[in-house]
C-alpha cells in the first residue's frame, strides 16, 4: 500500500493533512495518535470508504475508492466499534461471512484462537464489548485477506483478550499479511509495529521503527523524573558533566539528556535534596513512544 499527500476536510476541519504512508506485505504499520488525530479518517480513505480531497492512494495495486469491488475480497476491515445485527449469534455470523469467501479460514479455529468458542451461540448484543471486538476481528480475517485494516483493535479489551489479539496480529505478519492498525496505546505500537507513524491534528509528526523513534544515537541516554514545578535548574546544570542538558519539559516534569552515569544520578538527587523535594518516578533509559509524543506536542498521548 502506498499513500502520498492524503488530505481530507470533514465538517470544516482538516481531519487529514498531507499524510504519506507505506505498508508492505508481512509488515505491521501503526498509526499512533490521540483521539481526533485523524487515524480513522486516514484508514477509511485507504479502505476506499472515503475519497481524499487531495493525494493518491494505491492498495494492492488498486485505487480503493474507484476500484473497491476488486479490492474488497482481498482486504480485511475491522472498523472502530464493530457493529452487527443484534440478534445474530457469534458463530452464525462468522460462518455466514465464511460462506461468502473463496478460501475462508475455519470459523471454529478463529473462534478458538480468539477465545470465543464458549460464546459461539451467544447473540451479538449479549457479548461483552471485548468479545464483540474480537468477533469483529475474526470477521475481518475469515476471508484470508492479504492486507488488514484494524481500527483500534484492542479498545475496551482486558489484558488476556488483548494478548490473544496481539498474538494473532503477530501470526498474521509471519504469514505475510500486511497490517495497518490504529491505536492510542503506545505499548500496542511498541509491541506490534515494525513502523510507527505518529499523528496529531491530521498531520504526521514522526515516522520510523519504534527503535528509530525512541533511541537515535545522537540523543544518548535520558533521565526523567517528576517533582515540584519550577525548580531552579541553574545549579543542577552547573554540576552536570559537559554535554548533559536538563530542562523542565512541562510543569513538574524534568528531563536530562547526555552521558548519564551513576554520578549524574547522585547529582540530581543531591540537587533535589537541596530544594527539599523528592525526585519522583526517577527513570533512566531510552525514550518510550509516549515520551516521543510528549516531546513533540507537549501533551500526553492519552489526553
Ligand atoms: N463525519 C465527520 N464530520 C465532521 N468532522 C469529523 C467527522 N468525522 C471525523 N471528524 C473530525 O475529524 C477529526 C479526525 O477524526 P478521526 O475520527 O479520524 O480521528 P481519530 O484519530 O480516529 O480519533 P479516535 O481515536 O477518537 O477515533 C476530528 O477532529 C473529528 O472530530
TrEMBL record:
Membrane topology, as annotated: Peripheral membrane protein
ABC transporter domain: residues covered: 1-226
GO biological process: response to antibiotic
Keywords for this protein: Antibiotic resistance, ATP-binding, Cell membrane, Membrane, Nucleotide-binding, Translocase, Transport
SMART domains attached to this UniProt entry: AAA
CDD domains linked: ABC_DR_subfamily_A
Gene3D superfamilies: P-loop containing nucleotide triphosphate hydrolases (3.40.50.300)
Keyword Magnesium: no
Cited PROSITE patterns: ABC_TRANSPORTER_1, ABC_TRANSPORTER_2
GO molecular function terms listed in the Swiss-Prot or TrEMBL record: ATP binding; ATP hydrolysis activity
Main location: membrane
Entry GO terms, CC: plasma membrane
This protein's record includes keyword Protein transport: no
Domain of life: Bacteria
Pfam families named in the record: ABC_tran
Subcellular location: Cell membrane
Name listed for the protein in its UniProt record: ABC transporter
Provenance organism: Actinopolyspora mortivallis
Amino acid at each position: 500500500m502506498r499513500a502520498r499527500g492524503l488530505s481530507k476536510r470533514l465538517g470544516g476541519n482538516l481531519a487529514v493533512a498531507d499524510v504519506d504512508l507505506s505498508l508492505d506485505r508481512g509488515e505491521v504499520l501503526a498509526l499512533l495518535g490521540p483521539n481526533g488525530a485523524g487515524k480513522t479518517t486516514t484508514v477509511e480513505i485507504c479502505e476506499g470508504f472515503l475519497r481524499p480531497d487531495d493525494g493518491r492512494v494505491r492498495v494492492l495495486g488498486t485505487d480503493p475508492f474507484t476500484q473497491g469491488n476488486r479490492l474488497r475480497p482481498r482486504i480485511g476491515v475491522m472498523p472502530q466499534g464493530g457493529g452487527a445485527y443484534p440478534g445474530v449469534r457469534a458463530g452464525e455470523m462468522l460462518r455466514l461471512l465464511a460462506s461468502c469467501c473463496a478460501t475462508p479460514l475455519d470459523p471454529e479455529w478463529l473462534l478458538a484462537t480468539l477465545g470465543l468458542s464458549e460464546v459461539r451461540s451467544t447473540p451479538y448484543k449479549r457479548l461483552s464489548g471485548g468479545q464483540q471486538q474480537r468477533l469483529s476481528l475474526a470477521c475481518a480475517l475469515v476471508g484470508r485477506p492479504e492486507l488488514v485494516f484494524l481500527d483500534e483493535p484492542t479498545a475496551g479489551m482486558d489484558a488476556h483478550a488483548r494478548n490473544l489479539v496481539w498474538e494473532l496480529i503477530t501470526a498474521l505478519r509471519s504469514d505475510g499479511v500486511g497490517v495497518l492498525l490504529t491505536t492510542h496505546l503506545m505499548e500496542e505500537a511498541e509491541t506490534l509495529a515494525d513502523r510507527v507513524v505518529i499523528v496529531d491534528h491530521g498531520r504526521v509528526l514522526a515516522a520510523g521503527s519504534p527503535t528509530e523513534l525512541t533511541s537515535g544515537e545522537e540523543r544518548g541516554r535520558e533521565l526523567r523524573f517528576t517533582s515540584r514545578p519550577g525548580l531552579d535548574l541553574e545549579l543542577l546544570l552547573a554540576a552536570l558533566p559537559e554535554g548533559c542538558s536538563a530542562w523542565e519539559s512541562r510543569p513538574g516534569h524534568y528531563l536530562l539528556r547526555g552521558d548519564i552515569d551513576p554520578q549524574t544520578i547522585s547529582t540530581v538527587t543531591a540537587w533535589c535534596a537541596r530544594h527539599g523535594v523528592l525526585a519522583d518516578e526517577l527513570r533512566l533509559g531510552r525514550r518510550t513512544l509516549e515520551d516521543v509524543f510528549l516531546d513533540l506536542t507537549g501533551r500526553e498521548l492519552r489526553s
